[in-house]
Design a protein that fits this description.
- The chain has about 120 residues and is α/β, with parallel strands linked by helices.
- It has helices spanning about 55-60, 80-90, 100-110; strands at about 15-20, 20-25, 25-30, 35, 40, 65-70, 95, 115-120.
- The strands form two sheets. Strands 5-4-8-6-7 form a five-stranded mixed sheet, with helices on both faces. A three-stranded antiparallel sheet has the order 1-2-3, covered by helices on one side.
- A hairpin with a 2-residue loop joins strand 2 (about 20-25) and strand 3 (about 25-30).
């Protein structure tokens, strides 16, 4: 699906997504990624949902986000509470959803100038 920006922005927005990929500012990304309004972390070591650990989320806890959207692939899957502990201890809200919903929600919250991050599992 292609998403359209209403106005140009210097911040990262999702401009499309499909099976196994997302597009950020019209650039196609096909591996797990973390997207923040001001930067993209393309070397996030999380690959598949089954491989998620607390260490993956500990690395995200210091990004300065208020909310983390976790996109769990093409379907919604909830990680165990103990692996999300680094985020909850840091006071960061976590919303779990499939990747398409995470892309749409990120764009809405980013437009509201919220401190948002989207961690997407694409592998």
């Amino acid at each position: 699906m292609k998403l359209h920006r209403e106005t140009p922005t210097a911040q990262n927005t999702f401009t499309g997504y499909g099976p196994g990929y997302v597009m950020v500012n019209d650039k196609r990304i096909e591996k797990s990624v973390v997207v923040l309004p001001e930067r993209i972390i393309s070397d996030w070591q999380a690959g598949r949902f089954e491989e998620l650990t607390a260490e993956h989320f500990a690395a995200l806890a210091s990004l300065g986000s208020e909310i983390l959207l976790l996109g769990t692939g093409d379907r919604l899957r909830f990680p165990r509470a103990e692996i999300l502990r680094p985020l909850t201890e840091a006071g960061i809200g976590v919303e779990v959803m499939d990747v398409p919903a995470a892309c749409r929600t990120y764009n809405i919250l980013m437009a509201e100038e919220r401190k948002i991050a989207a961690a997407l599992l694409l592998g």
